[in-house]
Recover the amino acids of this structure.
């Protein structure tokens, strides 16, 4: 049972990336999914989350209007579309699946925003 993040990389300020979080060994259908990030020397912080149905989403103030979370349960995948990226978005991004005491984390994907 694992979550695998992908889609990170090096991008210039103002650029875009789409992160994916795919589950292996279980279905994400009944899990709320959160994206978190951790920059060097800083604590892990919540970025965005989406309910199991996809009907409810939340964003950190720092990413509102720039990031969009979505899910495709048929593909067992959750996405984080990141636009207008800033250097301060540089971090390792993790996804988390949460349901009734069950809690899974991925290994993270590095996002670096730099010119």
């Amino acid at each position: 049972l694992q979550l695998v993040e992908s889609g990170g990389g090096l991008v210039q300020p103002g650029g875009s990336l789409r992160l994916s979080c795919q589950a292996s060994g279980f279905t994400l259908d009944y899990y709320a999914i959160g994206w978190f990030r951790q920059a060097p020397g800083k604590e892990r912080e919540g970025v965005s989350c989406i309910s199991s149905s996809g009907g409810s989403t939340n964003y950190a103030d720092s990413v509102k209007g720039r990031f969009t979370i979505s899910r495709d349960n048929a593909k067992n995948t959750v996405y984080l579309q990141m636009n207008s990226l800033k250097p301060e978005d540089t971090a390792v991004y993790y996804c988390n699946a949460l349901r009734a005491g069950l809690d899974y984390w991925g290994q993270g994907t590095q996002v670096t925003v730099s010119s």
